[in-house]
Structures are given as structure tokens and as C-alpha cells.
Amino acid sequence: MPALAARGVEIAWSERGEGRPILLIHETAAAGAIWEPLATALSESARAISYDRRGWGGSSAPDGYRRTTVEEQSEDAAALIESAAEAPAVVAGAGLGAVIALDLVLRRADLASAGLLIEPPLLQLLPVATESLSDDRRRLEAVVGSADDLVELYLSGGLPALGPGVSRLPEVMAAAARRRPASLLAELGIAAGWRMPLPRLAGAERETLIVTSESTPPILRDAAAALAGRLASATAREVRSGTELPHVGAAAELGGLVRELSP
To answer: Could you report the per-residue pLDDT of 77-118, keeping only the tens digit for each?
Structure first.
């Protein structure tokens, strides 16, 4: 994989196909390889660019990596678009990656031609989620042990608000995440803590698809619906992915949706 030096880290990335650039941004506890099914589906008509976010896969993390922000993550993505895409890209993200993609759509519309947001965990749009987030924080505080114990709590689905639906993560990704506890802990809760620019949601100009599936947890389904009601030029769609993550189990259907997005 080529690497891009950006903002003090090395970002590993890969590409497949030619044509319209589509940047694929993965969720917490995963890596760019999780997009392989969708990249394959897109490669006949587009240039699918996937990458390992800082601290994951083949990308590095700063010394003493303890914390990150949505904005820091989206600036990494922006640097990759500017360096590798050579044109505004469709930005597609899942989980935290969807929040990063949304931040790009809102703040860097010069680089983002459209957005595909898969299960964005924007629980701050749901007043009822406050109690669930508080319960998760108490569960974290109750863990007595190493960072590995916190990672296991997350990957096991024991944090239903901070890690909704994570049990659907392919085992190969979960196994890799166990080897990167600092990266997981650095990202924990940053989506819920993002200062969402509500006025920009109402004024967003880029076409955006917000995607859920039949396996999407109710809290994420409600958050997606709330976002669709606030984000201008947004459309909500549901795909059929069985019990898998939408971008793993419904790659062909998602590929069709991406191709429908405005250039």
C-alpha cells in the first residue's frame, strides 16, 4: 500500500478502478480492508480509494496517542483527497467514518462532491440517548483491569450506546482491534461528543444518502432518521444486508446507490 505523510502520521491507502473518486472511511475497530466488497462493486465504474485511519491497519499513530477528534480525522481524509483523488470525491463512511464524512460534507464541500453515511452514530440528536450514554460510561468506570478489558467490553457489545452494533464486525477486524487498544480507546465516544454544526446541516448543499439496514440497532436507526430530518439534500435508504454490516453484506446494492449520487 502507498503511504501519505499527513499531520504527523503515515496514512496507508489503496485504490481500485478508474473514474470518479470515492473515498471510503471505516468505522472504529476496523481498517480500510473492510471496504473490499464495496470497492470491488464500485471498481468497474469508479475509483474506490480506501485507507486505514490513523492508528489502524498499516497507518501510524502519534506517540502517546490518547485522544482524537472528528475534525482531526476529517483533516486526515481531506489531505488524502487533496493528494490522491485529484478531484472532489464522494465521501462514504460507516459508523464513526460516517461522522467524519459528514464533517467533510459540511466543512470541506470543495473536496466532497456527495456523501454516503452508513449508520452514523449521532446520538446527540436523540434526547433519550443521554441516559444510555451515561449507562455506558458507568460500565466503563466499573471495569477494573487493563485497557484490554475495556476493548473486550466494547467488542463484545457491552457498550450499546458507545459501540452500537459492533458485534457485527467481522472477526478478522475485531482480532486486529484487540492488538490496537490505544486506538480504540482514543476514539471512544468522540462521535457523541462532536459539536455538530446544526446551522450547516440545514444549509448543506451536497447530496447525501443516509443508509441503514434490517440489522441496524434501533438507537442507530433513530439517529439516522433524526439526521435525515435535519440535513438538507439528504435521503434515507434501507438496504438488505442480513445480519452483516451494510457495507459488508449489501455491497452490490450500496454500489448502485453510490453510482446514483450526483456528480
So the answer is: 999 999 998 789 999 999 999 999 999 999 999 999 999 999
**C-alpha cell read off for 13:** 491507502
The helix/strand/coil state of 49 is strand
Asked whether the beta carbons of 116 and 211 are under 8 A apart, the reply is yes
Number of structural domains found in the chain: 1
What's the helix, strand, coil split of the chain in %, to 5?
45, 20, 35
Grid cell 485529484 is found at: 86
* pLDDT confidence bin for 173, thresholds 50/70/90: very high
pTM as predicted = 0.97
Residue 239: phi and psi, rounded to 5, are -110, 165
- CATH number for the domain that contains residue 59: 3.40.50.1820
C-alpha–C-alpha distance, residues 83 and 94, integer Å: 22
Domain boundaries, position 146: 3-260
Query: Hey, what amino acid is at 163?
Result: G
pLDDT at 192 over 90: no
The helix or strand, by DSSP H or E, that contains position 141, with its residue range, turns out to be: helix 129-142
